[in-house]
Automatic annotation (TrEMBL):
Residues 1-29 are annotated as: Disordered. Residues 13-26 have a biased composition (Low complexity). PANTHER family: ENZYME, PUTATIVE (AFU_ORTHOLOGUE AFUA_8G01222)-RELATED, TRANSMEMBRANE PROTEIN. The keyword Transmembrane helix applies. Keywords: Membrane, Transmembrane, Transmembrane helix. The lineage of its organism: Eukaryota, Fungi, Dikarya, Basidiomycota, Agaricomycotina. InterPro entries: Adenylate-forming_domain. This is Nonribosomal peptide synthetase 12. The keyword Transmembrane helix applies. It comes from Cylindrobasidium torrendii FP15055 ss-10. The chain crosses the membrane at residues 75-98, 104-128, 149-169, 189-210, 222-242, 254-275.
């Protein structure tokens, strides 16, 4: 008779084998289990048994308003809109009351400055440190608001698009001044302004979601190399524009008192800082299966941040000028190591699994992501599919609150190895581990909602692929359950 797979439902906190139970068992229905022994008869249902028959509550609000709120006007898009329309208002006012190419150039650099700083590792971590410091005792509505900190990328994109529009206005105003003879702007200054506009236009075009998801490696290379080139061109443009408008002052004096010049110093330092910490480090790679590898690092790898906080990720590369990949930093309990779990998800990861490295490139510092917000809630349901357990595992190990794990995947113990699975189930002995090979793909919205209701959770955090993440987050949020997941904004 068929037996219950060791990882279908895990109650033993220290499993050591994937062998079937020595007890007899039969699978009945969808599915319930009957276990028999010589001395007793015990019937135990799987934790998801019958969940498909339970009705989900009706979604709140009408469909049009609901879709506008949760799909069209997400927090990210709202922040983008605030930044964009604030800039648009200033731009209109300046053209109504009069403006010069010098003033437009200053506002252009200011927007580029904001866009770059909102992607700087230490700035991102600072925002997360401040927003997630809200105590769990504070009102839930306020904690939910602060937990949307991971949408602050909307400031980055809003400022980047606005800066490009400001630059277009600078080019137009400068050209008008040159043609009419109403300003001191030079041909060289205009030439560099138009060149920068072309580069920024390319960066924004290739960063559009549909292209970014279709060809992420190309997007990353263009973003990096076009961005570096544009930064160099902006330096030249700032010097030329300052020289055009310096009047009787010396160029040196004018540059020292030029706000764009100082902003460019900070921008350049911000871009260079992660690369000053570029190095090739030893890594201990353990192939878990044909679909996953686990790489172990010493804590000191990232220097100033020796112990990555739960919910953070680090970047690694085999070719530092070509492509970088971010993976969650997973501590190894009881050791001075932390690790990254890499599962098969493309050519790069496939190569890494088939030919595991003994050395790998790292740069910068671990950066906080969406999972960092979990510390703001008293009771959390974590949802992971497949290798999504990598980012979630550190949050389980930290024990910052009462939590429950839902982990779905195919042959999880075989794929990810005993060490990781045992550590996860030790951190949450009541974890629900659903074998999709045995039971098929579950209705994730229904199953997650059942766990939220049974566990009385304040929030859900999911790490999965993009379509499923969006489906679960929408399915829960539209029913009044706070849910958080990655937003794929970079």
């Amino acid at each position: 008779m068929p037996t219950l797979p060791a990882l279908a439902y895990q109650r033993d906190s220290t499993p050591t084998s994937t062998e079937p139970s020595s007890k007899e068992g039969t699978i009945v229905g969808t599915p319930s289990l009957s276990f028999k022994s010589e001395t007793s008869s015990v019937i135990e249902k799987l934790p998801w048994d019958g969940y498909l028959e339970e009705d989900l509550p009706e979604k709140k609000e009408g469909k049009i308003f609901r879709d506008l709120r949760h799909i069209v006007f997400t927090i990210y898009h709202r922040i983008f809109g605030i930044v964009f329309f604030a800039n648009a208002g200033i731009l209109i006012a300046l053209f109504v009351y009069g403006v010069t190419s010098q003033r437009l150039g200053l506002i252009t650099v200011a927007n580029i400055f904001v866009a770059i700083m909102m992607r700087q590792d230490y700035v991102v971590n600072a925002f997360f440190d401040v927003f997630t410091s809200v105590p769990q005792s504070w009102p839930l509505w306020f904690r939910l608001l602060m937990a949307r900190v991971y949408h602050l990328g909307g400031i980055h994109s809003g400022a980047a698009v606005s800066g490009t529009i400001w630059l277009a206005a600078t080019c137009a105003q400068g050209t008008q001044e040159r043609v009419s003879g109403n300003g001191p702007i030079s041909v060289a200054t205009l030439t560099f302004a138009w060149l920068i506009l072309i580069f920024l236009g390319c960066i924004i075009g290739f960063a559009l979601p549909w292209f970014r998801s279709a060809s992420h490696d190309t997007f990353e290379r263009i973003h990096r190399f076009a961005g570096w080139t544009a930064t160099g061109l902006v330096w030249v443009h700032v010097v030329l524009l300052t020289n055009d408008w310096r009047g009787e002052k010396s160029l040196g004096y004018a540059l020292v008192h030029s706000a764009p010049m100082w902003l460019m110093f900070i921008i350049t330092a911000s871009l260079a800082l992660p690369w000053t910490r570029l190095r090739k480090v030893p890594v201990r790679s353990v192939v878990l299966s044909d679909h996953a590898v686990r790489m172990y690092f010493q804590y000191k790898v990232f220097g100033m941040h020796p112990r990555p906080v739960p919910g953070s990720f680090g970047r690694v590369s085999l070719d530092p000028l070509q492509e970088w990949h971010a993976f969650a930093c997973v501590p190894v309990p009881g050791t001075d190591e932390w690790s990254m779990v890499v599962s098969q998800a493309g050519d790069w990861t496939t190569k890494l699994i088939r030919d595991p490295p003994s050395e790998i490139w790292v740069r910068g510092t671990p950066v906080s992501g969406v999972l960092r917000v979990n510390i703001m809630f008293r009771r959390v349901v974590f949802v992971a599919t497949g290798s999504g357990i990598g980012p979630i595992a550190p949050c389980l190990f930290a024990h910052d609150q009462e939590h429950r794990l839902l982990w779905t995947g195919s042959n999880i113990r075989k794929t990810f190895g005993d060490d990781l699975v045992n550590a996860v189930t030790a951190a949450d002995p009541d974890a629900v581990i659903y074998d999709t090979r045995k039971y098929g793909r579950p209705d994730m919205v229904k199953l997650t909602y059942k766990m939220v209701k049974d566990f009385n959770a304040e929030a859900v955090v999911i790490i999965s692929n993009e379509p499923l993440t969006k489906k679960v987050v929408y399915g829960l949020m539209s029913r009044g359950v706070p849910a958080f997941g990655a937003i794929w904004d970079s």
